[in-house]
């Protein structure tokens, strides 16, 4: 086939007799060589616009006193506890209780006072020796009280024979209580063969009063101490 290039058009003949035809086509362009920017892919990131936000209470870390409380939307600040003043201290709770009772009898607003114990300690007073028999008897007493309660409930809904139901409930409760008491003491294997009673005590008790009422409370307590000293000297 012979072809002839005319501008951007290619013409020619097939070279076969009776089958010659005119061929037309577009002239092919040479490929463009790749550039450096085509070989290296540069990622593009969209610019994200952010707006400053107000941190909430859940975003703040917790401190030694707990999470801080932010003011409300209206700008209101939470109320703080009123400052207090200790107007008197006593070595025992009974004396502090007597002082507050005197303030109440004198018309003082005792809702602004508090008895504060400092130097707290746990005291366990040993009552006596604990044996298996004593543990069983204590359990029997507790079980009898529980059986009495159950017997009264059954007696209310019983039309006849409620006394027998009551006695049977007490006996059954006492037997089961004795069994449980003896079993519980046996499980300790002699590590605690005594009974005790625990109490929380303080070294001293102070009368704390709101600062705005402190002077009035102090004057009343001085009057109470003066009366107590007079009664002591008279006796």
Summarize the structure.
By secondary structure, this protein is α+β, with helices and mostly antiparallel strands.
3D structure, described in words:
The chain is of the alpha+beta class and 235 residues long. It is 38% helix and 20% strand. It contains five helices and seven strands. A three-stranded antiparallel β-sheet has the order 3-7-4, covered by helices on one side. A hairpin with a 2-residue loop joins β1 (2-6) and β2. The longest helix has 26 residues, at 162-187. It starts with a strand and ends with a helix. The model is unreliable at 1-25 and 36-52 (pLDDT under 50).
Fraction in beta strands = 15-25%
The biggest sheet, with number of strands, parallel, antiparallel or mixed sense and barrel status, is: 3 strands, antiparallel
Report the C-alpha radius of gyration, rounded: 49 Å
- The number of distinct helices, counting runs of at least 4 residues, comes to 5
Give the overall shape, derived from the CA principal axes: elongated
Q: SSE order, as H and E?
A: EEHEHEEHHEEH
Oligomeric nature of the chains: single chain
Output the keywords.
235 residues, alpha+beta, 3-stranded antiparallel beta sheet, two-stranded antiparallel ribbon, 5 helices, elongated, disordered N terminus
